[in-house]
Write a sequence for this structure.
């Protein structure tokens, strides 16, 4: 492990992020803010949804913003760099093990996901207030869940980015991302699926469920949510699984 | 102290991925098992052994698909060999990757510049990956930009660069960490003559500083002009090795006269062999009208009247004549029966 090389690669990603700052900000925050506005303000304000829905919605929005920022931040550049610009080759020739280049991508993606989560919280709160009741009873658990969410999203981005061909990006959205959002318990608690028992069991393979429920458990514990230990265990499981798959796929792409 | 490069019995077999759609899923399955289509196995290297001496400019010459780029890929940690070994200096490439990467600089066949960065940033970050301190990397970047005539474009994103500018910047980048061995894969492909000459000068200068250079090319002129020794490779193994002059001397006679007759008889071939100066006569089973014959001889033009006479006496109309002087192209033809450009 060569720390200088690793740090230089992180600095390169930071430089690129700085250069694309406006695009990144729009990409990360526009969609959650629109969602918060329509569901939290318009629907609640006009009486179609109860006022409590605002507090239920916020944790889901945070989870979704983090997960998709992390996936996007890692997967999209990798798809382009491996298949189109080949610009990653310069880093593949840097004096460091190939797996560390993948780890660097994951760290960069995690940082972006964490920033997305930490900025969406106050932004959404500003749009939604008054009448929003969040309380962080255990800051440590909250922080741990944030980090675990950031990790699985970045590792998921690594696995997807190294597995999907450029011409299948559209399919990735249709077949992976969209079902993940709708069955991710971001806009409703997992317990709301009890009238569809089969569905309620099936969605448990979706890591976004644990992200949403984990945020709900630590921010708005007054709503029904999965137990925190189950959330932590599931998130750790997905972190490890996706990292292992991602590293394997990365190695296959990186070395002919 | 310059270092050499060595390979021992390198083999690389690619398994061709099934075409999109054939495998069913849209997730790329690199090792799809039980698929409907058997995977095609494509041997790229077939027992390639080479020794490149410390401090020489060595050329790998061969047609497209001969295994040149795969050889460079294996030596630069980018392609894992199916079997065999490769060394950069004393370091085995596939056991000491990070160490080996320190020693090598690579100019790829197709540009792979970092499109998210400016020209100068590309050089600076490259040096940073190699742990070169801030002051030194800035100095080197400025010097190389100047040398490669890119100073004016230093602060621009490389997306809009021409092919020649990208190629120059790729070479500058490969030199940023001052590698002991420089690999250039088809360095002058697509370059205008002026840039090609600039490139050759730079390669020679780098070599004079005591560095080893390995380049691949299918350009005879380039191999002739630059390389101290050459390996001609085809179908993944070395078919001839030596200096340009040695290789040329190994062609029987040196001159190649390619003939085409309306009708070609064994008797005619026999008579051709008996002409003064003719070393070897090869009948080619070519398709199309008439039959081709390659005559290797130590003279060219002066043979033609005699050949024309022979043909007229044998009743075989001579329909085409082409004379090539001693060249690596002829050598390649002699060894493989194919032209380098095929």
């Amino acid at each position: 492990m060569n720390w200088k090389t690793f740090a230089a690669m992180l600095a390169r990603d930071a430089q690129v992020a700085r250069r694309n700052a406006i695009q990144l900000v729009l990409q990360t925050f526009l969609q959650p803010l629109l969602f918060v506005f329509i569901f939290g303000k318009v629907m609640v304000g006009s009486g179609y949804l109860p006022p409590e829905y605002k507090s239920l919605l916020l944790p889901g929005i945070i989870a979704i913003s983090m997960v998709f920022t992390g996936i996007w931040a890692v997967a999209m550049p990798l798809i382009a760099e491996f298949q189109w610009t080949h610009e990653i080759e310069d880093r593949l020739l840097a004096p460091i093990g190939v797996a560390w280049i993948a780890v660097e991508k994951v760290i960069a993606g995690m940082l972006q996901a964490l920033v997305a989560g930490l900025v969406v919280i106050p932004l959404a709160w500003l749009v939604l207030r008054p009448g929003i009741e969040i309380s962080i009873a255990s800051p440590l658990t909250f922080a741990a869940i944030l980090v675990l969410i950031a990790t699985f999203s970045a590792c998921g981005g690594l696995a997807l980015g190294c597995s999907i061909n450029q011409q299948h990006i559209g399919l990735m959205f249709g077949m992976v991302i969209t079902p993940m959002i709708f069955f991710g318990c971001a806009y409703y608690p997992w317990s709301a699926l009890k009238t569809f028992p089969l569905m309620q069991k099936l969605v448990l393979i979706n890591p976004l469920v644990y992200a949403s429920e984990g945020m709900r458990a630590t921010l708005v514990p007054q709503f029904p949510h999965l137990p925190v230990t189950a959330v932590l265990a599931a998130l750790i499981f997905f972190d490890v699984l996706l990292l292992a798959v991602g590293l394997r796929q990365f190695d296959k792409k990186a070395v002919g | 102290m310059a270092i050499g490069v060595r390979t021992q019995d390198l083999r690389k077999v690619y398994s061709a991925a099934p075409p999109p759609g054939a495998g069913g899923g849209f997730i790329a399955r690199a090792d799809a098992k039980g698929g409907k289509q058997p995977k095609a196995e494509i041997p790229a290297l077939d027992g390639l052994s080479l020794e490149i001496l410390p401090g020489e400019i060595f050329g790998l010459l061969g047609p497209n698909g001969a295994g040149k780029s795969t050889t460079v890929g294996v030596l630069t940690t980018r392609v894992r060999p199916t079997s065999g070994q490769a060394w950069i200096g004393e370091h085995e490439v596939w056991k000491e990757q990070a160490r080996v990467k320190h020693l090598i600089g690579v100019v790829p066949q197709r540009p792979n510049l970092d499109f998210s960065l400016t020209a100068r940033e590309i050089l600076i970050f490259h040096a940073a990956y190699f742990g070169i301190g801030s002051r030194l990397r800035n100095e080197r970047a400025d010097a190389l930009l100047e040398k490669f005539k890119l100073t004016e474009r230093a602060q621009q994103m490389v997306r809009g660069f021409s092919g020649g500018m990208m190629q120059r910047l790729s070479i500058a980048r490969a030199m940023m960490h001052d590698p002991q061995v420089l690999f250039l894969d088809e360095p002058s492909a697509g370059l205008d003559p002026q840039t090609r000459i600039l490139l050759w000068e730079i390669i020679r200068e780098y070599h004079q500083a005591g560095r080893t250079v390995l380049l691949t090319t299918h350009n005879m002129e380039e191999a002739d002009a630059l390389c101290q020794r050459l390996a001609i490779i085809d179908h993944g193994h070395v078919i001839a090795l030596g200096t340009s002059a040695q290789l040329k001397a190994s062609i029987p006679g040196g001159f190649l006269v390619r003939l085409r007759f309306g009708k070609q008889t064994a008797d005619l071939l026999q008579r051709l062999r008996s002409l003064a100066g003719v070393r070897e006569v090869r009948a080619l089973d070519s398709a199309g009208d008439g039959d081709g014959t390659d005559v290797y001889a130590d003279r060219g033009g002066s043979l033609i009247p005699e050949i024309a006479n022979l043909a007229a006496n044998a009743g075989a109309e001579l329909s085409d004549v082409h004379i090539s002087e001693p060249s690596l192209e002829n050598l390649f033809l002699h060894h493989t029966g194919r032209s380098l450009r095929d």
User: Anything to note?
Assistant: The interface with chain B takes residues 2, 4-5, 8-9, 11-12, 15-16, 19-20, 85-98, 163-165, 167-168, 171-172, 175, 252, 255-256 of chain A (CB under 8 Å). The CA atoms of residues 161 and 223 of chain A lie 35 Å apart. Chain A has one domain: 3-254.
